[in-house]
Fold this sequence. Notes:
Elements: E1 2-13, H1 20-26, E2 28-45, E3 54-57, E4 61-64, H2 73-81, E5 87-93, H3 103-118, H4 125-139, H5 147-154, E6 157-163, E7 166-171, H6 176-184, E8 186-190, H7 197-204, H8 211-233, H9 240-253, H10 263-274, E9 277-282, E10 290-295, H11 300-306, E11 311-312, E12 317-318, E13 323-327, H12 332-337
Parallel strand pairs: 3-5
Antiparallel strand pairs: 1-2, 1-13, 2-5, 2-6, 2-12, 3-4, 6-7, 8-10, 8-11, 9-10
Amino acid sequence: MIITRTPFRMSFFGGGTDMEEYFKKNNGAVLSTTIDKYCYVNVRHLPPFFDYKTEIAYSKTERVQDINEIEHPAVRNAMKELDMHQIRLTYEADLPARSGLGTSSSFAVGMLNAFYALKGKYVSKKRLADEAINLERELCNESGGWQDQIAASFGGFNRINFSNNGYEVLPIIISPERKEKLNKNLFMFFTGFTRFSSDIQKINNENKNGKEKKEETLKKMYELVDEAEKILTDKNRDLDDFGRLLDYSWKLKKQTGKAVSTSNIDALYERGIKAGALGGKLLGAGGGGFLVFYAQPENHEKLKQELKDLLYIPFEFENEGTKVLYYSPESYDSIMEEK
């Protein structure tokens, strides 16, 4: 049996510039962190006592004889790609799927990590990220960028640069005290709306006439990554500028597609700002999920009180990325010998 734990990510700046069609031409960068909210993937070989060969349990349970019968596209394609047979896979998570925290990519990374571990193989974080990107973007043909898979695999507070040559992960060098202050000034609330990120991406890409305008906006958002990094790493800079920059970035983000925000989300955001938040954003591609705000200490309770009708989710930054929590491999051949 193998159990992997993979964190969800919180992206602050540069979202959208991690789309391959954009960064191959313009370069891109995101500034993000992983948080102590995780998905867990439990994988073991299925004992030979059942009338099905594979069992997959997530929001639904699938029991099939043949891998090609699996409805979940990521599981089906990953099993075929890594030649996995006769397994039982269970997925659990601290937070709901389709909520803007890169949950599907965290699952992809955690699943691949578990499959390799079941085979008795160690693979690098970069390989897991690369294969998760290939799984979601190529094999499953899902729209989206590259940042989620990389963040989930590597973990930590990073700047991720994208170019025609691929990507590089650069940890943000920030003092523990300043990092803790930032963490305490960030507040996350669940809007209650969930959606498929790939669906939102497709809608936001529909307006071909606005492509040039969108690229110009994305270039501005890319430049904000530099400014945000300077705010974090220069101890002489006012950390509150991070919150103000989030507000500016969110206003730019809303210009990149008609499905990024909704009237309900806009109303919730304005309530947060009126309660004293300096800035914030909706996490993920848009349309729903989690809102994050930056607020000064004197406004913390006021912000929570104003948004008390939403679910408040406390969190801490995490640094580990995907990891194997429990490792007790058994070979597929030994399972077959029991028959």
